[in-house]
Amino acid sequence: MRKKTITLPNGKQVVQKASYTPLIVLLVLIFMYISIQVTQFNFTQLITRGDQFFVMLKAMFPPKMDFLDKVWVPLFDTIKMSLLGSLIGALLAVPFAILASNNIVKNRFVSSLFKLILSFLRTLPTIVIALIATFVFGLGTMAGTVAIFIFTISYVGKLTYEQIESLDMSTFEALESMGLTRLQAFRYSVIPAILPSYLSTSLFNFEGNLRYASILGYVGAGGLGILLNEQLGWRDYGNVGTILVVLVITVGIIETISEYFRKKLQ
Description:
single chain, 266 residues, mainly alpha, two-stranded antiparallel ribbon, 75% helix, flat, cell membrane, MetI-like_sf, transport, membrane
């Protein structure tokens, strides 16, 4: 860790800076030890009981095809609440992103306030929002839609305002100097620049929301999660396998479609 003086072949001496690598490695090991103690992670238990995961996985196959008829309605509920929550959230994320952008809103208090709101919404776990929503709106897909809607505003809003702030504003300023209003300058300079990225982000967010929506049912927010929780509780792993296979195929199809359109937008 000490500085070291090295003499080069030409006789010149250079000083090699002290290395902090051993200190960093030591700190990482200490924090790993503390993490293991706090989380009570047990390697022995992992080795002795880890095979039970594969036992349960094996019990899920082959899936029970006669259970398929009961999966369609919750599956479409999951897709509907993901789509609606993502769509409304992505639309409302635009005004939030504009008001959070320093280069559009010159009032630092306003832009900082909206950045703080987006950060606060982003720190709330989606499943906790869904749980709170079930107390407010009751059990069902309404609670799940609200949870996805709030998460989408925070996610799409943050990425959009960061992109707006990274833009070269010379075109925006030139349009303003030509007599266009601030709104018109925004319409013709900023929107065309961010639109492909905004749509791509919204589609990617929708993919993720579809996966989240499938577990929101654990807190009563509707969709496949309720059915999955029910079948796991009854230890009917064949039915669980049916639900997972349907979910994986659905997510795969939506991901493929979304990826196709995102590539077109690039």
